[in-house]
Write a structure and sequence with these properties.
about 1050 residues, about 20% strand, seven-stranded mixed sheet, 28 strands, alpha+beta
């Protein structure tokens, strides 16, 4: 019997005579509104237990009825899922606010499907699909087409899926999608590109090798059951993909073709489209470009395999109850690993959410509070990895020096807490409150920041969940299951554990094993039976389960106030306090964002010890606030606190109902940490030292950027300088900390911006409350000179400048080269031209230096703000050539770019302008965006709130006056090849292990023009001494 929904019946009757009583345009609008009403009614009925499909008939070219996706109350998008006749699954999303089209494909194949003789093949296949197809053999065709229409693309390979995601301006979607479809229909896999791209994958692995987190992640997986593909090397490198197979007479090219044919078949592909066009139009678009996919059959495209028949870890395999120890250059960590019951198909129960609430709790009696109080661990994280191969829970604790020395005590506290939770049983009231909080967060979530990100997240979810649950899975607890929660808790026991310790004190001479792919040594042994018994019986210590959530938002009404198009309104301007308000900005949610600058003059942090004291203050404040703010943070209200060269930034975000309470908690310790700050000062200083010593958390190019900032930004310091200062207990002490805070607040100027569901009157009240809590008198003035001094000043070099330094990561062969060309302080028109250039140069730089030259995996080319100026930057990281050689190749690429920019056609210039116009006119879809577009102007005091409107005016004027690339050429030449004066070029060269750091016999162009010669960076003091007398750019912002 066919059921007809009430909303369908109602809408159908009305729609039948719309055309008789309304004009066609009005009728079309009302039709859309009625259909949306019907969908919302359907979802409400579905939530109440009434289950029916919006459409039951099959559409032409489709083999399943269309399915509506469950969505948040506040989501104005429409989602529709179907399966094409070929077997391709398609999700179309109509987003009325979308400015571009997002599109993605998820493949139900990842590293778990790697053949044992081609480890890393899934990842390599991901790389190769971008490099030409039979229909479009040009390897740069896809990238060039996307770039022409303001698009972007990327991909990732996980253990069980490979996801390709993209976006493009609507004018380019037909061609862009057609090229993309051919990835899955007929890729080239040209032998020449196979031989070239294998080096890119090898470079990617070399980039990852020094990363301690990646090392341990791979090691733990490699210890899994050898019958399970989990144990294999997932990234792949030159050896596993080419050298070893070819030595056995096997072809990588043929392996790629076989892999693609077996796994990239229609039944295992999921296409996502996101656009402002209708669902039907999107599905027609998909049919036009993807119907050429060969139809799947049960024989040609069987369901993806599952691997849960092989337990990952157990005592019979001898890979459980193991202790692994390896070295690190950074902060010590303790990893705990527990195999759990398979959870992948139990997403509606979401049993792990109950466990996360327990582990995340920071109130009285919690594990977090005890570890912090005892100075054993200041932070830990937790998650479950669930795949078709099984489920494993990870708990990762960062350790203090004391925690490293007393690992067994940390373990005892952990299992005592888990034991208290197990003994108490599943708390019905707590489970209900967690379920309710998750529903509220789901219904009032902010929209994805772009079509690109939405397509990526949806595609990544589709292989794992039923289409109707693709948004709710992993968020909502649809079917609370106490028995599953108990089963999950019962797996968190010492006898079901592996542990791994990352220790700076590990001596390689004590290692018992060597890991070949990441090339490091480690020790492995069985956990002692006595320790396991002690941990099994651990109890007490005042540990107890958390209470139900106390601040689940209930006041969800909207204020509905918003500032006009001119930008934020200044509601308070009393002396040293400025209060700005922007309202909802078009984002209708019961949430708010509050940004606060506690500004101070640059003289406050002009010494390196001041920068350390500022960093320590941030950590002390977080330490003090962890416990009191926990109940609010668990219920969707957050704060952050950070230090900058010209002020502290305090941010609040989330549901607005209890925001005033959070403000009242956070700001007093920001003003003065009191005795609590003195008590934990030394603990905090030592932890900061550990973090500063952790050089492996940053890539070589990031270390080069740190050096660049230390040389070019007045008042910046190198990591080594900061580390040395933090070691000096005379300079960095509780007494100097008190003096520092007194100096900060002696001349503080407060700037505040409120966005979201808080009206004007409440904003004024909050501003006054903030001033009172920070004890900043509203009626006291401060000189404009003092207020403005804190803006960062950027070096304006009289000659080209070169900095040379070693890679600080021991034994890392990767070098990094950063070349910048300063444009100077831009006008509004200059910003328009540089934005267009930034979008244009990225792909040519990547293609020349990465795809063609294979200089490294990390290659960027873009225009970037740097203080008050804008500059062109090119970054390369790799191990194949020295930075001296790379710099010459960058110069060659920049020179070639000049001629390419000069040859831009009128159509290309128009497309670039339209792409920028699309970006500038895209409405804010989150409160972070609403606040963010104005906060930078408030922070630095420029208040150029109409910057977007001015940029659009420039685009309009140039559209009407010229179609040539002349303005772009002029901007480009001013930076990289000025007709008068000299280039403002700054180069940073970071040399990898074993790379000759002696300058080449023919000095680089930068050094040749600079009589001082290159700077060998020791610290910012060394750089400043060599740059004595150099000028700095003005800190002006040109708002015209």
């Amino acid at each position: 019997m066919k059921l007809i929904s009430p909303s369908a019946l109602f809408c159908g009757v009305l729609l039948s005579f719309l055309g008789e009583v309304l004009q066609p345009a009005a009728a079309a609008v009302l039709r859309r509104q009625l259909l949306r009403h019907g969908e919302e009614l359907q979802l409400r009925l579905s939530a109440a237990g009434v289950k029916w499909r919006r459409e039951e008939q099959l559409h032409a070219g489709e083999q399943t009825p269309r399915v509506v996706v469950r969505k948040p109350k506040t989501d104005d998008r429409d989602y529709m899922h179907t399966t094409f006749s070929s077997g391709l699954r398609v999700l179309a999303v109509h987003d009325p606010s979308a400015k571009k089209t997002g599109f993605a494909v998820a493949v139900e194949a990842g590293s778990l499907e790697d053949p044992s003789d081609f480890q890393g093949l899934a990842h390599f296949c991901e790389h190769m699909l971008f490099l030409g197809t039979k229909k479009y053999p040009d390897t740069d065709e896809f990238s060039r087409t996307l770039a022409m229409y303001g698009g972007d693309h990327n991909a990732y390979t996980s253990s069980e899926e490979t996801v390709y995601y993209n976006e493009i301006g609507n004018a380019g979607i037909e061609k862009g999608l057609d090229i993309f479809a051919q990835f899955f229909i007929a890729p080239s896999f040209a032998e020449t590109m196979v031989d070239k791209e294998i080096h890119a994958v090898d470079s990617e692995h070399k980039k990852n090798q020094p990363d301690t987190q990646r090392r341990l992640w791979h090691l733990l997986r490699s210890r899994a059951n050898p019958k399970s593909p989990v144990h294999q090397f997932s990234t792949g490198d030159l050896q596993t993909l080419k050298v070893q197979p070819e030595s056995q007479g096997k072809s990588l090219e043929q392996a790629l073709r076989t892999f693609h044919k077996e796994h990239y078949c229609a039944n295992r592909l999921h296409l996502v489209l996101v656009s402002n066009t209708s669902i039907d139009e999107q599905l027609e678009l998909a049919h036009r470009h993807f119907d050429a996919l060969p139809a799947a059959t049960a024989e040609s495209c069987p369901p993806r395999p599952e691997y849960t028949q092989w337990p990952l870890y157990n005592n019979e395999l001898g890979n459980l109850q193991r202790r692994i120890t390896l070295g690190t250059q950074g902060v010590p960590e303790l990893w705990l690993i527990f195999p759990t019951p398979p959870l992948k198909k139990r997403y509606k129960e979401l049993a792990e959410a109950y466990i996360w609430n327990m582990l995340g709790h920071y109130g009285p009696g919690s594990l977090k509070a005890l570890l912090l109080k005892e100075d054993l661990s200041h932070h830990y994280s937790y998650y479950v990895e669930s795949s078709v191969a099984g489920s494993v829970m990870f708990v990762t604790l960062t350790l203090t020096e004391k925690g490293l020395a007393e690992v067994d005590l940390v373990l005892k506290y952990f299992f005592a807490y888990i034991g208290a939770i197990q003994k108490a049983g599943v708390d019905d009231e707590l489970l209900t409150s967690v379920k309710k909080m998750r529903q509220v967060e789901f219904d009032y979530q902010e929209k994805s920041s772009s079509e690109y990100n939405l397509a990526r997240s949806l595609a990544g979810a589709l292989p794992s969940y039923a289409p109707e649950d693709v948004l709710t899975a992993g968020v909502l607890i649809d079917k609370p299951d106490k028995e599953l929660i108990r089963s999950l808790l019962s797996s968190i026991v010492p006898s079901n554990m592996n542990m791994a310790l990352l220790s700076p004190k590990f001596n390689d001479s004590t290692a018992t094993h060597h890991e070949p792919y990441y090339n490091f040594s480690y020790a492995e042994e069985a956990l002692e039976p006595g320790l396991l018994a002690e941990l099994s019986n651990a109890s007490g210590f005042g540990l107890q389960p958390p209470p139900p959530l106390a601040y689940v938002p209930e006041s969800l009404d909207l204020v509905g106030e918003s500032a006009g198009p001119e930008g934020p309104e200044a509601l308070v301007g009393a002396g040293r306090v400025q209060g700005w308000w922007v309202g909802s900005g078009g984002v209708q949610l019961p949430k708010a964002v509050l940004q606060l600058k506690v500004g101070f003059p640059a003289t406050v942090v002009e010494r390196v010890e001041d920068a350390i004291l500022a960093a320590i203050h941030v950590r002390i404040v977080h330490h003090i606030l962890e416990q009191p703010t926990d109940a609010l943070q668990t219920c969707g209200l957050y704060y952050s606190f950070a230090a900058h060269s010209d002020g502290f930034q305090v941010s609040f975000s989330g549901f607005d109902q209890h925001m005033s309470k959070m403000i009242e908690m956070v700001l007093p310790p920001v003003r003065t940490s009191g005795q609590a700050g003195k008590d934990i000062f030394e603990v905090t200083r030592r932890q900061l030292l550990l973090n500063l010593a952790d050089i492996t958390k940053s890539q070589p190019y990031q270390h080069a950027m740190e050096a660049f900032d230390a040389v070019t930004i007045k008042g910046s310091f190198t990591r080594s300088e900061l580390h040395r200062a933090a070691l000096d207990t005379q300079l960095v002490s509780p007494e100097s900390y008190e003096r520092f805070l007194a100096e900060v607040f002696a001349n503080t100027r407060l700037s505040l911006l409120v966005a979201g569901n808080i009206g004007r009157d409440r904003t004024k009240q909050i501003t006054e409350s903030v001033a009172a809590l920070l004890r900043v008198p509203m009626g006291t003035s401060i000189s404009e000179q003092i207020a403005m001094e804190g803006r960062p000043q950027v070096l304006n070099p009289a000659h080209p400048l070169e900095v040379r330094m070693p890679n600080p990561i021991p034994a890392d062969p990767n070098s990094a080269t950063l070349v910048t060309y300063q444009f100077g302080v831009p006008s509004i028109a200059d910003r328009v031209h540089l934005a267009m250039l930034s979008e244009f140069i990225n792909r040519p730089v990547f293609e020349a230096l990465r795809t063609e030259r294979q200089l490294g995996y990390v290659v960027f080319g873009y225009a970037a703000p740097h203080g008050s100026i804008v500059e062109i930057r090119v970054i390369v990281q790799g191990f194949r050539e020295s930075p001296d050689v790379v710099e010459a190749l960058i110069e060659e690429t920049v020179s070639n770019l000049t001629s390419r920019i000069e040859k831009l056609t009128a159509d290309e210039v128009r497309a670039r302008r339209e792409s920028l116009r699309t970006a500038l006119t895209k409405p804010s879809v989150s409160l972070g965006q609403v606040a963010g577009q104005h906060w930078g102007q408030i922070w630095d005091g420029t208040h150029c709130f109409n910057k977007k409107a001015l940029q659009l005016a420039v685009l309009d004027a140039e559209e009407n006056s010229t179609t040539s690339a002349a303005p772009l050429v002029a901007a480009w030449r001013r930076a990289v090849a000025p007709t008068s004066g000299h280039r403002k070029k700054i180069t940073v060269k970071l040399f990898g292990a074993g790379v000759n750091r002696i300058p080449m016999s023919a000095p680089s162009s930068a050094a040749a023009a600079d009589e001082r010669g290159p700077i060998t960076l020791v610290g910012s003091e060394d750089a400043r001494a060599k740059l004595k007398g150099e000028a700095y750019w003005p800190t002006d912002f040109i708002c015209k």
